Amino acid sequence: MSAPDLFAEFLACSEAMMAAAIDQDWAALQANANQRDEIEAAIKRQRAIERRPLNDREAEIFRRVLELDQEVRDRVEPWLKHAGKLLSRWGALSS
Fold this sequence. Notes:
- It contains 3 helices and no strands.
- Helix 1 (3-23) runs antiparallel to helix 2 (26-50).
- By secondary structure, it is an all-alpha fold.
- The protein has one domain (3-94): Methane Monooxygenase Hydroxylase, Chain G, domain 1, CATH 1.20.58.
């Protein structure tokens, strides 16, 4: 896969993660995160071979991915805290 294709897929996975977070579809969120991790590894391998700075488009994609990551965290963290409280109560009940 070429660099432009990898970067487009990288962004697409981040956008899919955001959509999954909005829908509270945790399985889809995880699946897209796993796929994005694979794409990120491919980008790193390719960049190690090419040894060139990011072009403007690639840099913009990375900025957008970071923004989306923050938005996903903002949506997921309250749910994780709530789930943690429920699990700790359940653990106290099962003792």
